[in-house]
Amino acid sequence: MNNVKDKVVVITGASSGIGEETVSLLSENGAKLVLGARRLDRLEKIQQKIGHNVSIKKTDVTQPDEVNALIETAYNDFGRVDVLINNAGLMPQSFLEKNKQDEWNQMIDVNIKGVLYGIGAVLPYMRKQKSGHIINLASVAGHVVFPGSAVYSGTKYAVRAITEGLRQEEAAVGSNIRTTILSPGAIDTELTDHISDKEMKQGIDEVYKDAIKPDAIARAINYAINEPEESSVNEFIIRPSSQNL
Ligand code: NDP
């Protein structure tokens, strides 16, 4: 069974880490891809590597117009959107006492509002098609809080709440739109590079010593998409086997 082949998949934050790995696996399985991120040079390299059935669009998910334009790119180039993966996110964790307001705002803008803009942009099209799938990246930090994770956890708890609300609303109207919450544990990507709080970074680096490769997350995304349309895989938590948090 290959239910991934020919599906049109839009993914934000496609320029590195989990996004890039997911693009690679889905394209191997025959999906048509539309990649968004701010670093266009990275997207161009990925596009060249894949070679066909892939469009790119410079997208900052904090800008609703740019998110709308990303979805429109999928319609213009491939005629529909079967899957939206709201993957863009950042994790500059710090202790609240440090009062890092710019980083709080960034996390809220990208991790929460970016996801909402994605949902808002794609829902009218999916409702009209009477089919679709929205996959949102949460985190283990969207299930547990620890010192230093308050704001990041807040954003990821919000992603879970929003996705569950979306699931209920779409099920109620029978729109045939599937939802998936994916909560990774420590995955080896660029995510921890942006932690400016030195004490926090040391602690996180310790947890990330056992980080696993992003292909573990790509396979889960592929599984959720590949399931038959009547089956909605609503939630995954994927940790390194040795992670106790
Ligand atoms: P990376 O840092 O490797 O990737 C993050 C991606 O988000 C980049 O492609 C970046 O692209 C994009 N991004 C950041 N800000 C914006 C923005 N304003 N607009 C558009 N894109 C943006 O980390 P991961 O691959 O690990 O992260 C992917 C998701 O997985 C995130 O939501 C993260 O919270 C979640 N996650 C990751 C875990 C991990 O351990 N790695 C654990 C739990 C959750 P660019 O800079 O080019 O815009």
Automatic annotation (TrEMBL):
It comes from the Bacteria. Pfam families: adh_short. InterPro entries: NAD(P)-bd_dom_sf, Sc_DH/Rdtase_CS, SDR_fam. PROSITE patterns: ADH_SHORT. Keywords: Oxidoreductase. Gene3D superfamilies: NAD(P)-binding Rossmann-like Domain. GO terms for molecular function: oxidoreductase activity, acting on the CH-OH group of donors, NAD or NADP as acceptor. Belongs to the short-chain dehydrogenases/reductases (SDR) family. This is SDR family NAD(P)-dependent oxidoreductase. It comes from Staphylococcus succinus.
